[in-house]
Amino acid sequence: MNIENQLGLRLAICGPSGIGKSIIMNLLAIPGADPRRVRIPRMNDDPKICMQPKKFETLKRGLESRAEGPVYKSGDLAVYSDWAVFRIRGKDWQALPLDGALKDTQSRIRVEIFAPTLLKLLRQQNKLRDILPLQAAETLIILLNPTQTSYRLMNGPTRELREATFRLIYERMLATNTRIVPEQIQDIQRRSGQYLAEELGAWKKLAALGNCVEYLGWRHSEAECILDNLTAESFGIRRSGIRSLRIKRDILHGVAEKAPQYWSRIRDAFKTKEEIF
Where are the domains of the chain? Predict the structure, then answer.
């Protein structure tokens, strides 16, 4: 299938926490499927991607009280005509508004949805196509891998992957001046241990859908980008764009090499150098 001849495109970015998925999303100049994180905004959070817990509880009660019920439900995932609500890693709720560009099959959108949830949505497209069109044939999966072993070859999270994930999350917390307490260390251990197995399983199944570019030894991280910007600000510069340009270059290089039919469309989806700086 020649994607260049298709008008719509969904760009989904997956990988361990802290590897920089949100950084790449911010480099794209196209609308996004941005789930609202149910939490009080943290340092470096965009308030628009967060939803206050009380507001979420009100939303969830209203959705659950609807006589027609959800269009699709599986475990903690419930998809309604205008919202999808789901829980990730067994505890953190997110809410995705289903409106605007998301329902336009001719638009290009970026997608950062928890991989196991994204997999469910892709598999239910016959039922959800009018609410959240995410046809697998029109979705390019970008898989960020901090190790040199392909996710497809892993029977389970390797020691290298677990250690890299732990480091990515821990360094992000340090970069945002998060006060680290024992409970948070335990959470990082779960996210780089038992929860990682669920995500790895989803990454492998997403890769098997066909339209996938995996980046082995991905060398960028959210912590590094945060620290670069803090350093730039200390010198009176609004933000550092050097690493952002490197990330853009690396993504485009991988697409050109492994999925050239997408290259021009992905190139046009990125912000220009002037917009990045």
Answer: 3-33+104-276
